[in-house]
Specification:
Structural class: alpha/beta
Largest sheet: 10 strands, mixed
Strand order of the largest sheet: 1-3-2-4-5-10-9-8-6-7
Helix content: 10-25%
Number of strands: 10
Number of helices: 5
Low-confidence stretches: none
Shape: globular
Length: 201
């Protein structure tokens, strides 16, 4: 589900490292459309290699399977967390960042599939319709608020849909803001990531 070798897309804008855990093409496309130069890395790439390239931002992609089984990837993501590079993670990437920072995940009785799942932004109270395709979730009860706090919640079953990391330029979401099943309202999250890279300069 991952690229075998690293490759680069886009022009000479913000340099973003995309860790391909099974990435949908529209993640890279969404970044390139915002002027970013995206280097896509295989899932087993060491954190040191990614950081040595000097990215201005790091994206952790979606992907399949039980997140807790990705022990080696979690170890490398922990190193990325410890850097000061802004990070945005989607779906599996969201779960792996949570595991890398001490939280836990669990298997949902009924997975979230489809393009019509309402998620609530806990900062603004606004509800968005999201695209989802996952069978596991982050356990909100396992979060240390000194590390991360919930940012989005699923309106249907109250499961976690996103995290904001305390004292870090890191945010993660369970749903797919790059998907376009109808409304494109959640595309603003890519703009937020871009702004984080601007501030971090």
């Amino acid at each position: 589900t991952t690229t075998k070798t690293a490759y680069t897309l886009g022009g000479a804008g913000k340099r973003v490292a995309l860790l391909d855990l099974g990435a949908k093409e529209n993640i890279a496309r969404s970044l390139v459309q915002r002027g970013c130069q995206v280097t896509v890395y295989p899932a087993d790439t060491k954190a040191e290699e990614i950081l040595a390239a000097g990215p201005e931002g790091i994206m952790l992609s979606n992907g399949p399977g039980d997140p807790a089984e990705n022990v080696e990837v979690i170890r490398e993501i922990r190193k990325l967390y410890q850097s000061d590079v802004p990070i945005f993670a989607i779906c599996l990437g969201h779960q792996l960042m949570a595991l890398a920072t001490g939280a836990s995940t669990y298997k949902l009785k009924y997975g979230h599939r489809g393009g019509n799942h309402p998620v609530k932004d806990l900062e603004t109270g606004r509800v968005y319709i999201s695209s989802q395709n996952h069978g596991y979730a982050v356990d909100s009860g396992s979060l240390d608020p000194a590390v991360a706090v919930p940012a989005f919640v699923n309106v249907n079953d109250q499961t976690n849909e996103g995290l904001r990391y305390t004292g870090k330029n890191i945010f993660t979401v369970q749903f797919h803001p790059e998907a376009c099943p109808g409304p494109r309202d959640l595309g603003y999250l890519f703009d937020k990531f871009f702004q984080m890279m601007e501030v971090d300069r």
